[in-house]
Write a structure and sequence with these properties.
345 residues; alpha+beta; 2 domains; 10 strands; transmembrane transporter activity; transmembrane helix
Length: 345
């Protein structure tokens, strides 16, 4: 659940939803507030998104520890200045081999002790990327870290709620909506909050990917059409320039199908050469994509590859383009009269 442009979510909302029986279809509720902040350690300074969250965030959005521990409910209650860092954040601040647990960092000038480091494995989801995460206790963020940026009455950006199972997602959404509307005294007004369903987010992402793939398919189709027309024009020019050669071959016994087969083979070879260049470019782009994934997005184990299936598909499509757009020039060459062709200069 997220606050809309005029935020209306509070810590009291989180406490109310966490009460037994308030949301029967859910197993946990976590309050979360996030801001961009300057994070520094050992003379290194970076800008990161810092999340203040109640400790059960690590249960609702399961995270794996690479070292140390998660902060506790007691530390949350006492607004202790402790933090759990994403693995990539720890590497940037303290180096590849250094142990960040027990070290100190500053966030917007406020000192924090690192008590845990998340596994460096990256992944994008509703919980974000654990490699780039920085978590501090919610009360610490609200009262000490972001106190000048948080309203006295509105102090929560998100309420993260976990349904009991997949079948309980819709009931949980309905129960949360009803509970918040009752707490905010919304009789006929629109919701002053937004409920986000991970499945809906996934469907939206899949829709975007499908649309992007359709666009790429359209671009590829237009490119193939233009390339095929280019091949046909090249072959027509070749037929015109080799008219006398065609006549000579026919005069010494070459049949129509021999001439046609010759020019079809030439068209297919041209397309296959173009396809080979395309495959080579594909390998180069894959290497570039892998470099970006590993070094820019720090996506461990990610690799962009050109599969054998893609190579075979490119080869087959190139051959079909050669046949389709080389057929007319080959037919024109096969139909030339040997007498007329031999007279050609």
């Amino acid at each position: 659940v997220s606050a809309q442009q005029a935020p209306q979510l509070t810590a009291a909302d989180a406490d109310a939803l966490a009460q037994p029986g308030a949301v029967p279809a859910a197993t946990g509720v976590a309050a979360q507030i996030g801001r961009s902040a300057q994070v520094s350690a050992g003379g290194r300074q970076y800008t990161y998104s810092v999340s203040g969250a109640t400790p059960n965030i690590f249960v609702i959005l399961p995270q794996k520890l690479g070292g140390g521990r998660f902060y506790t409910a007691d530390e949350e209650r006492d607004s202790v200045r402790v933090t759990v860092l994403g693995g990539e954040v720890a590497k940037k601040l303290f180096g590849e081999s250094a142990d960040a647990v027990g070290q100190r960092i500053t966030i917007n000038g406020v000192g924090f002790e690192v008590v845990g480091v998340l596994n460096t494995k990256r992944g994008i989801g509703i919980g974000g990327d654990p490699g780039q995460a920085i978590y501090v206790p919610y009360s610490t963020a609200r009262d000490r870290l972001f106190r000048n940026e948080v309203s006295a009455k509105v102090d929560v950006d998100f309420l993260v709620i976990k349904a009991r199972d997949r079948d309980q997602i819709d009931p949980a959404i309905r129960q949360v909506t009803e509970a918040l509307r009752a707490r905010h005294r919304l009789s006929y007004q629109n919701n002053d909050f937004t409920v986000l369903n991970p499945q809906q987010i996934a469907d939206q992402v899949n829709g975007i990917i499908t649309g992007f793939n359709a666009f790429l398919g359209l671009v590829a189709g237009i490119s193939l059409l233009v390339g095929g027309i280019g091949i046909m024009n090249i072959m027509l020019v070749s037929v015109a320039e080799r008219t006398r050669e065609i006549g000579l071959r026919k005069a010494v016994g070459a049949r129509r199908r021999d001439i046609m087969f010759q020019f079809l083979i030439e068209a297919i070879v041209l397309c296959l050469v173009g396809g080979a260049f395309g495959i080579a470019l594909g390998f180069l782009f894959a290497q570039g994509g892998t470099f970006v994934l590993l070094n820019v997005f720090q996506a461990e184990g990610a690799r962009a590859t050109v599969t054998l299936g893609a190579i075979m598909l490119a080869t087959v499509v190139s051959s079909l383009i050669g046949i389709a757009f080389g057929f007319f020039p080959a037919l024109a060459a096969a139909r030339l009269s040997p007498i007329v062709a031999l007279r050609s200069e």
